[in-house]
Amino acid sequence: MIDLFQYGDFKSHAGLSLRWKIECDGISDNEWGCISEMILDYEKRPFFKAIGIPRGGEPLARKLDKYASNNSDDSVLVVDDVYTTGTSFKNYISQIGYDYPYNNFIKWVVFARQATKDNINALFTMPEKI
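Below the sequence we write its predicted C-alpha cells.
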C-alpha cells in the first residue's frame, strides 16, 4: 500500500524542491471512479474525449472518457492528478495542440498545491501560505 501524502525531499515536474507530495499512485481504481464523478458534478460542458497528462492524469482520463461525447466539435478534456506550477499542462497542451488545432481544451486537476492559472479547474486547492 502506498501513502497518498508523503513527507520528504522531492522535485516537481518544473524542478522545484518540495517538502511533501501527493502520491496519486496510492489512489485505487474505485477512488478514481469517484473522483471522476465528483468532477462531473461541476463540469457540465460536453467534451469530445478525455486525455490524461502522462503519467499522473491517465487513470482519471480513463474514467472520464466513458462520458465523452465523441463529437469532434466539442472541447477536449485534459486532466492531471496534481498541479504545482502549471508547467505540465503548458508542455502537454503544446505537444497535443497539433492534433487539436483550435486549442479548445477544458482543463481539470484533482489536487492543486496553489491557486491555478490558465483556466485550469481544481477539485481540491491548498490554501495560500501565510
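The radius of gyration is 15 Å.
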